[in-house]
Amino acid sequence: KSLVHYLLFVVCPVVRMARVFVYGTLKKAQPNYFRMENTSNGQAEFLARARTIEPYPLVITTKFNIPFLLNEPGTGQRVYGEIYRIDQKMLDFLDRFEGCPERYQRTEIQLEVQDGEGENTLKPGSIEEVFVYSRREPEWLQNQTYESYDAFGDHGLKYVLPEDRSPE
Ligand code: PCA
């Protein structure tokens, strides 16, 4: 078999990587960040802080105070978060963890890379298209929106980890 065949069918599947924008509990210093760092879930490499190009409603809801970015561009606020490069294993983990496609859908979103204090590996101001876990839920469009999620913020809405939830 040829070198081209080797590169296409042997190397490519191994190095296949995705990029994901996290805006909620998966961000640094948030309650689920440890799952991104746990290599038994796969690999995740921080790339940059970023902000959505379009406004979206970021709401905190359900009795477990879960943050959701609603897939309703043009309403709400431009949302801040972090871009990670992840391998297929981490993508599979996150899909399972986020209850995709039942609780969240994985869609694509356009982002503007922020200025990072030397930690960004993407060019500030560049526009990137990456995966995001979002949801379509018309009822929640009335909720208060946030431009940046912080589980420990003034809103006082304490996030409940999946392993601590009583049956819904
Ligand atoms: N985790 C995902 C979606 C919301 C959440 O809690 C994230 O941080 O992007």
Automatic annotation (TrEMBL):
Active-site residues (renumbered): 98 (proton acceptor)
Position of the signal peptide: 1-18
Pfam families with a match to the protein in the record: GGACT (PF06094)
GO biological process, one term: modified amino acid catabolic process
InterPro entries: AIG2-like_dom, GGACT, GGCT-like, GGCT-like_sf
GO cellular component terms attached to this protein's record: cytosol
Keywords from the named record: Lyase, Signal
Keyword Protein transport (UniProt): no
Gene3D superfamilies, A to Z: Gamma-glutamyl cyclotransferase-like (3.10.490.10)
One Gene Ontology molecular-function label: gamma-glutamylaminecyclotransferase activity
Catalytic activity: epsilon-(gamma-L-glutamyl)-L-lysine = 5-oxo-L-proline + L-lysine
E.C. number: 4.3.2.8
Residues annotated as domain Gamma-glutamylcyclotransferase AIG2-like: 20-138
Annotated CDD domains: GGCT_like
Family designation: Belongs to the gamma-glutamylcyclotransferase family.
Record function comment: May contribute to degradation of proteins cross-linked by transglutaminases by degrading the cross-link between a lysine and a glutamic acid residue. Catalyzes the formation of 5-oxo-L-proline from L-gamma-glutamyl-L-epsilon-lysine.
Designated name of the protein: Gamma-glutamylaminecyclotransferase
Protein source organism: Sinocyclocheilus anshuiensis
